């Protein structure tokens, strides 16, 4: 293998780390240099992610076999060393993160990166944590990367520090700290019982356990699952999520769109190694996770999460809040699919994941722009007016930020026909989020439902599949109703509105994300073929396990 | 020793959970600190309790692993302490800011 190519898997972690540290050497005054460093790091991440994704497609079979690459950090082989593992799913998630990251970065340049200190450093650190969580092959390192991304996300959520953000930030931090403590309990219990933290080694170690130790291991994996479900935004652990996402600045919320999917990804990864039917055949004795418990739990939680999301969307008075609920719905759908355990459903679910992350991200950025059409600070007619707090206290030593959405702080070129642009983008985003034809949301939902209905040929549909079909269609209808209502209020009620000046920098990323979704629709065939391979490798984790542990025999 | 250790973890986590559920931000942060003590002790305990065993093997050559303590939980607990300390410090800053902005130390930012 080419020497330089060998080090590619570490690039998505090292590049943002180095960039975040280097940015700190320059003061706020040299903003150009800061932006240049952050932009360079984003390009490196995007390039590395696409290269890694290409390598996992077996386009170059001499580099990695069967689409799984292993990077032993420091050259220490497993089981003693810590490894990064890249497979098709990880490559896909890395690319998705990089795309959303670039879009949020460019969007922030128009206004948001100047309302508080260290925006670019925090964004880079958060991307480092997300990339690391996707790449790591070790449970404890997963914890460390979760903490990195959470610590940076605390800073990002508070960015621009309004009273609302600080209030929500407090809740967000406390909830996630408790989640981290649960994570730690689970990880240490797993180590105490199974004697290993390498994700590839755990199934075999778990299969060897008997009696009381086995029960302890089941308890440990359940505690871990609770920690991941908090991250994934599953009901009833998600009451903090809509308020936090709605309170965050637009580009921050856009990049937060990927965070719930980190939790889903981990459940998918650990679940595939733990409870896949093929592991059962490969490893004698038992599986790592009790399949009945894991699958059943995920299914019911997913359905309840979707139900919660439906009511949340119908009740939401604010666009950003509504979009946050739609992120919850998409998490719920993915959890349901994980729980149903029908092989044919996995590829459409991954397609849905890509489309929903891109659309949610674009929608959050769009909601940042539509807020500006209200003349006063966002006050919907039905919302109770917040009492004005006198600025007796300026937190974090922030100098007076440029007046919110001032017309004169021009960066870049304003685009013409701002209202028309926002209206068109809104329509596209609605089509994507609700899963209406002809865009990628429809392709995803159609493929998902058709796979669910045809999963068992000839046999009548089981009740869980009926429920999935019903609830999925209901989410589409509910989001259409809710979004149409908010859309009419935003674009057709002319009283008290003004037309904001949109800059290319903030409008461009929304358009690019929507175009990517359209491209996803056009190229649905090849994308789905790749996702089928990714789903197949999730179904057959032996390749993953064998590749990771290949170094073991050398010792 | 095991009984004492388990009781300590129980008392820490019990008080921690009770304090986290209290309405004042200061109580919440102390509760979180107590909970993280409990979790750190728990991680340490997962390496099995022993007296007078070193976690580092001195010198080369094969030695009996029973003479040594498991080094991995000690490394884990060190990492967990550092991360827990840093995030608690961050929470403390946010707590002070919330107190300054809202004028109250209630977790909801207003008196019920």
Low-confidence stretches of chain B: none
CATH class of chain B: Mainly Alpha
Q: Overall pLDDT of chain B, averaged?
A: 87
Unreliable spans of chain A: 276-287, 376-385, 403-411
Strand share of the residues of chain A? under 5%
* Helix content class of chain A: 55-70%
Total domain count of chain A: 1
In quaternary terms, these chains amount to heterodimer
Biggest sheet record of chain A? 2 strands, antiparallel
Shape of chain B: elongated
Please outline what is shown here:
The complex is a heterodimer of chains A (555) and B (112). By secondary structure, chain A is mainly alpha-helical.
Characterize the structure shown.
The complex is a heterodimer of chains A (555) and B (112). Chain A has 555 residues and is mostly helical. Chain A has one domain. In chain A, strands 1-2 form a two-stranded antiparallel ribbon. In chain A, strands 3-4 form a two-stranded antiparallel sheet. In chain A, helix 16 runs antiparallel to helix 18 and helix 17 runs antiparallel to helix 19. Chain A is globular. With 112 residues, chain B is mainly α. Chain B has a single domain, classed as Orthogonal Bundle (Helix Hairpins), CATH 1.10.287. Chain B has three helices and no strands. In chain B, helix 2 packs antiparallel against helix 3. The longest helix of chain B has 32 residues. Classes of the chains: A mainly alpha (555), B mainly alpha (112). Chains A and B meet through helix 6 and helix 7 of A and helix 2 and helix 3 of B.
């Amino acid at each position: 293998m080419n020497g330089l190519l060998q080090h590619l898997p570490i690039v998505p972690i090292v590049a943002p780390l180095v960039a975040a540290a280097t940015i700190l050497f320059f003061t706020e005054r040299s903003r150009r240099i800061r932006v240049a460093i952050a932009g360079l790091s984003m390009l490196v991440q995007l390039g590395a992610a696409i290269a890694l994704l290409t390598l996992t497609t077996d386009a170059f079979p001499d580099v990695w076999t069967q689409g799984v690459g292993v990077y032993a950090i420091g050259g220490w082989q497993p089981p003693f060393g810590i490894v990064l593992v890249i497979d098709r799913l990880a490559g896909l998630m890395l690319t998705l993160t990089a795309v959303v990251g670039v879009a949020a970065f460019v969007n922030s340049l128009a206004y948001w990166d100047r309302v508080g200190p260290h925006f670019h450093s925090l964004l880079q650190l958060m991307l480092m944590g997300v990339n690391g969580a996707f790449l790591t092959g070790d449970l404890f390192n997963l914890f460390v990367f979760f903490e990195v991304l959470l610590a940076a996300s605390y800073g990002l959520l508070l960015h621009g520090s309004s009273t609302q953000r600080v209030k929500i930030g407090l809740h967000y931090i406390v909830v996630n700290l408790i989640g981290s403590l649960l994570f730690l309990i689970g990880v240490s219990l797993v180590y105490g019982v199974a004697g290993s933290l390498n994700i590839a080694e755990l199934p075999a170690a778990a299969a060897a356990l008997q009696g009381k130790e086995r029960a302890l291991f089941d308890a440990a994996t359940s505690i871990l699952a609770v920690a991941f479900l908090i991250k994934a935004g599953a009901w009833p652990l998600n009451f903090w999520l809509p308020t936090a996402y709605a309170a965050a600045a637009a580009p921050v919320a856009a990049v937060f769109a990927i965070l719930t999917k980190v939790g889903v990804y981990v459940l998918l990864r650990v679940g595939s190694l733990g409870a896949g039917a093929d592991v059962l055949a490969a490893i004698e004795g038992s599986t790592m996770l009790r399949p009945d418990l894991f699958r059943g739990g995920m299914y019911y939680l997913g359905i309840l999460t979707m139900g919660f999301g439906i009511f949340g969307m119908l009740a939401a008075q604010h666009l950003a809040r509504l979009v946050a609920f739609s992120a919850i719905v998409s998490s719920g759908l993915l959890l349901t699919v994980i729980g149903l355990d029908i092989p044919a459903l996995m590829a459409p679910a991954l397609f849905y994941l890509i489309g929903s992350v891109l659309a949610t991200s674009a929608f959050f950025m769009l909601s940042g722009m539509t807020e500006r059409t209200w003349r006063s600070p966002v006050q919907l007619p039905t919302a109770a007016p917040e009492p004005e707090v006198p600025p007796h206290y300026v937190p974090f030593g922030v100098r007076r930020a440029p007046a919110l959405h001032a017309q004169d702080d021009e960066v870049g070129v304003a685009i013409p026909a701002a209202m028309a642009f926002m209206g068109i983008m809104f329509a596209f985003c609605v089509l994507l989020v609700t899963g209406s034809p002809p865009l990628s949301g429809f392709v995803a939902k159609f493929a998902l439902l058709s796979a669910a209905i045809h999963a068992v040929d000839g046999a009548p549909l089981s009740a869980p599949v009926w429920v999935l079909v019903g609830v999925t269609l209901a989410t589409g209808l509910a989001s259409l109703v809710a979004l149409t209502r908010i859309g009419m209020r935003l674009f057709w009620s002319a009283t008290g509105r003004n037309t904001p000046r949109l800059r290319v920098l903030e409008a461009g990323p929304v358009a690019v994300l929507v175009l990517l979704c359209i491209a996803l629709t056009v190229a649905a065939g090849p994308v789905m073929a790749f996702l089928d391979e990714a789903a197949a490798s999730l179904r057959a984790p032996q390749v993953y396990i064998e590749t990771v542990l290949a170094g073991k025999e050398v010792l | 020793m095991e009984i004492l250790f388990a009781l300590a973890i129980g008392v820490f986590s019990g008080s921690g959970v009770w304090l986290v559920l209290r309405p004042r931000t200061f109580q919440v942060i102390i509760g979180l600190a107590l909970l993280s003590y409990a979790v750190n002790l728990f991680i340490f305990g997962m390496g099995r309790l022993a007296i007078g065993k070193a976690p580092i093997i001195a010198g080369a050559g094969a030695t009996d692993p029973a003479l040594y303590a498991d080094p991995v939980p000690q490394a884990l607990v060190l990492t967990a302490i550092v991360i827990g300390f840093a995030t608690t410090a961050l929470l403390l800053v946010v707590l002070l800011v919330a107190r300054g902005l809202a004028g109250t130390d209630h977790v909801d930012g207003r008196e019920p």
